[in-house]
TrEMBL record:
Belongs to the glycosyl hydrolase 47 family. It comes from the Eukaryota. This is alpha-1,2-Mannosidase. It catalyses: N(4)-(alpha-D-Man-(1->2)-alpha-D-Man-(1->2)-alpha-D-Man-(1->3)-[alpha-D-Man-(1->3)-[alpha-D-Man-(1->2)-alpha-D-Man-(1->6)]-alpha-D-Man-(1->6)]-beta-D-Man-(1->4)-beta-D-GlcNAc-(1->4)-beta-D-GlcNAc)-L-asparaginyl-[protein] (N-glucan mannose isomer 8A1,2,3B1,3) + 3 H2O = N(4)-(alpha-D-Man-(1->3)-[alpha-D-Man-(1->3)-[alpha-D-Man-(1->6)]-alpha-D-Man-(1->6)]-beta-D-Man-(1->4)-beta-D-GlcNAc-(1->4)-beta-D-GlcNAc)-L-asparaginyl-[protein] (N-glucan mannose isomer 5A1,2) + 3 beta-D-mannose; N(4)-(alpha-D-Man-(1->2)-alpha-D-Man-(1->2)-alpha-D-Man-(1->3)-[alpha-D-Man-(1->2)-alpha-D-Man-(1->3)-[alpha-D-Man-(1->2)-alpha-D-Man-(1->6)]-alpha-D-Man-(1->6)]-beta-D-Man-(1->4)-beta-D-GlcNAc-(1->4)-beta-D-GlcNAc)-L-asparaginyl-[protein] (N-glucan mannose isomer 9A1,2,3B1,2,3) + 4 H2O = N(4)-(alpha-D-Man-(1->3)-[alpha-D-Man-(1->3)-[alpha-D-Man-(1->6)]-alpha-D-Man-(1->6)]-beta-D-Man-(1->4)-beta-D-GlcNAc-(1->4)-beta-D-GlcNAc)-L-asparaginyl-[protein] (N-glucan mannose isomer 5A1,2) + 4 beta-D-mannose. InterPro entries: 6hp_glycosidase-like_sf, Glyco_hydro_47, Glycosyl_Hydrolase_47, Seven-hairpin_glycosidases. It comes from Lentinula lateritia. Its EC number is 3.2.1.-. Keywords: Calcium, Disulfide bond, Glycosidase, Hydrolase, Membrane, Metal-binding, Transmembrane, Transmembrane helix. Its cofactor is Ca(2+).
Length: 637
């Protein structure tokens, strides 16, 4: 057991502390030099070069019902915003990217991130220049070849080493650095990018020194590894897409083996205590769950995401991932979704089972990080035959039979009787609505990082009225039946549009406001992408302009409240004006937040959802079809 070094406590208290490094000041003359470069580059600002990646044929939205039957929104609102206004908005996002990235180049390159208030820099992700790696594909999509070309010499020169005693956090390094390199390679086919990706994976490979083949928390390229025996779901199982793409691009079986080992371990795990869903903690020796804490937020999110996305990435042939996705979403929909008491806000929370409890106990926290879920559900509803699983030889009843624990098995049987496509789409719409309201309710127009939802008893979206066993139905199923019977037009419970509630300053100070149905746990806005990600996918999959109108409102708030002379800054709180900024601009702002905004506003989709799959850091990877030769070499059935 000695390869599990004793850092569990430190790691638990601060997952990134292993890699946090001191902040050093760079020589002043560099700033002056970059200042001159910046002035020069102002002239380039307005010369927007057309993208050089291959643009696939774009089919406009069918106005046909994205849902099914009579439950659909039967018409789509007409977009009153002219096309050239949308084009102007896309251009504004591109200018925002340039503003922030030029600040990084001027004050922080080749370090990890710029501190946008002090113009200092920070090396918080290995010090290899994470902002550059995370930004490459966004530059290519935006046609910013000058910035891309300026980054390439740095990418070429990065030395993937760390001082003794420091460790690269494997998960973050894979999704940001490896994902960034692979995606830029897919868009630009520059061999240097692939060479560096292959080399990086090589340097990280010691991390797999566990009996299960799940990675440890951290690795030093010198071969030392670090991390507790009990691993965190998102950190041990969010590498499948990157390693699959790396295997495809390099032709190396060993990278596919890394991905496949994780997929197989997940598939074999015993989930009868958690209703078929993966809990957060895992034993890296036995490859089995270690607790019963279920969440789609922090520490869990991207693993659920990669079930669907790995299936899509490998051209929908890998049924194991599909079935795991159906299990996870069935449990989420029946057990983790709740309605708030007054506004009927649909939200997703985390649950924990204690001994002898047949249902998880909800915490009623609702995290901004969970706001990727509506996008994922919409992507699934859009790409999978959820209303005809039989066509794939899948019966939800059977999935629920497999010694699932108590109530969840019932949930499968119940859902099996309904149109899963509509159901997933409603959940997506309702959740996205709440994520959006968490922005619209705030004076800054930006959403808090974590909320605590008010409750009134057991208000699961899928709660029983009279209990399962006595023929009672799920509350929302009943409500939907009634809603259907009434001939109502509009949305099922928890799904329709709602009016924002902005508290007065007195209500905020006294904490007396109740009308919102939630209180705020963590009031910062960390320039996070999840809500925009979901608005983007809902816009793409439904064609309903309301989603991108909201995206534009959020962008306006970002411009108004987070902009600094050298970039954009996280907010300490979204609840007060004028907004109070933090000295922090995470690299995902370039990789994800601005990319989703840009993709939402441009009129030609360069990475259609049926040809590209975005990793959890929004790095697009092309759908991969294995050739017969690859199947033979990699032993893919
Ligand atoms: C879960 O499955 C395992 C192995 O299949 C079995 O030993 C265990 O009793 C099951 N537990 C429950 C609660 O059904
Ligand atoms: C992890 O699993 C192994 C093998 O089953 C077991 O020996 C070990 O005690 C487990 N670790 C913990 C912390 O439970
Ligand atoms: C699963 O349960 C359903 C009814 O709940 C039953 O019709 C079906 O045959 C069962 N399947 C298996 C494989 O046992």
């Amino acid at each position: 057991m000695n390869h599990y070094q004793k850092v569990a406590e430190m790691y638990r208290s601060h997952p990134l502390s292993a890699s946090l490094r001191s902040i050093r000041h760079r020589p002043y003359f560099r700033s002056v030099l970059y200042g001159c470069l910046l002035i020069a580059s102002v002239y380039v600002l307005y010369s927007f070069v057309n993208p050089t990646y291959p643009v696939s044929t774009y089919s406009s939205f069918s106005r046909a019902d994205p849902f099914s039957g009579d439950l659909a929104e039967s018409y789509l609102p007409v977009d009153e915003t002219p096309a050239d206004v949308w084009r102007g908005r896309a251009k504004s996002v591109k200018l925002a990217f340039l503003h922030g990235y030029h600040g990084y180049e001027r004050y922080a390159q080749p370090h990890d991130e710029i501190r946008p208030l002090s113009n200092d820099f920070i090396d918080n992700f290995n010090g290899w220049g994470v902002t550059m790696y995370d930004s490459l594909d966004t530059m290519l999509l935006m046609g910013l070849d000058n910035e891309y070309n300026r980054a390439m010499p740095f990418i070429e020169k990065t030395v993937f080493t760390l001082p003794d005693g420091e460790f690269a956090p494997f998960f973050e390094t894979v999704i940001r650095y490896l994902g960034g390199l692979l995606s830029a390679y897919a868009l630009r086919k520059d061999d240097l990018l692939l060479r560096r990706a292959d080399e990086l994976a090589e340097k990280l490979d010691h991390v797999f020194a566990t009996p299960s083949g799940f990675p440890l928390f951290g690795v030093n390229p010198n071969g030392n590894v670090v991390g507790p025996e009990i691993g965190i779901l998102a950190e041990i199982a969010s590498l499948q897409m990157e390693y699959t793409a790396l295997a495809k691009f390099t032709g190396k079986k060993r990278w596919w083996d890394r991905a496949n080992t994780v997929i197989k371990a997940l598939d074999k795990a015993e989930l009868n205590k958690t209703g078929g869903m993966f809990p957060i903690r895992w034993n890296l020796t036995s490859a089995q769950p270690f607790d019963t804490h279920l969440s789609v937020g922090a520490q869990a999110d991207s693993t659920h995401e990669y079930l669907l996305k790995q299936y899509l990435l490998t051209a929908k042939v890998d049924k194991a991932n599909l079935i795991m996705y159906l299990r996870a979403t069935t449990h989420i929909i029946t057990e983790l979704l709740f309605l708030s008491p007054k506004r009927h806000l649909l939200y997703v929370t985390d649950t924990t089972f204690s001994t002898n409890e047949h249902r998880g106990r909800p915490s009623h926290t609702f995290e901004h990080l969970s706001c990727f879920l509506p996008g994922l559900l919409a992507l699934g509803a859009h790409t999978l035959p959820l209303d005809d699983l039989a066509s794939l030889g899948i019966d939800l009843n059977d999935l629920g039979n497999e010694s699932m624990f108590g109530i969840s098995g019932e949930g499968y049987k119940l859902l099996a009787g309904y149109n899963l496509k509509s159901l997933h789409m409603w959940a997506a719409e309702g959740l996205a609505q709440t994520c959006w309201l968490s922005y619209a309710d705030m004076p800054t127009g930006l959403g808090p990082d974590e909320m605590l939802m008010h409750t009134a008893g057991d208000d699961r979206w899928g709660k029983t009225v009279d209990g399962f066993k006595d023929g009672g139905g799920y509350l929302w199923m009943d409500a939907i039946e009634k809603w259907k019977a009434s001939g109502a037009r509009g949305a099922p419970p928890g799904v329709g549009d709602k009016t924002p509630v902005i508290y007065t300053e007195t209500e905020r100070l006294r904490g007396s406001g109740r009308a919102r149905d939630y209180s705020i746990r963590k009031s910062g806005y960390l320039l996070r992408p999840e809500t925009l990600e979901s608005l983007y996918i809902l816009w793409r999959t439904t064609g309903n302009n309301k989603w991108r109108d909201r995206g534009w409102k959020i962008f306006e708030s970002i411009e108004r409240h987070t902009k600094t002379p050298s970039g954009y800054a996280s907010l300490r709180t979204v609840e007060v004006l004028p907004a109070v900024k933090d000295d922090d601009m995470p690299s995902y702002f370039f990789a994800e937040t601005l990319k989703y905004l840009y993709l939402m506003f441009i009129d030609t989709d360069p990475i259609p959802l049926d040809k590209w799959v975005l990793n959890t850091e929004a790095h697009p990877l092309p759908v991969i079809e294995w050739s017969q030769a690859e199947k033979d070499t990699f032993h893919i059935p």
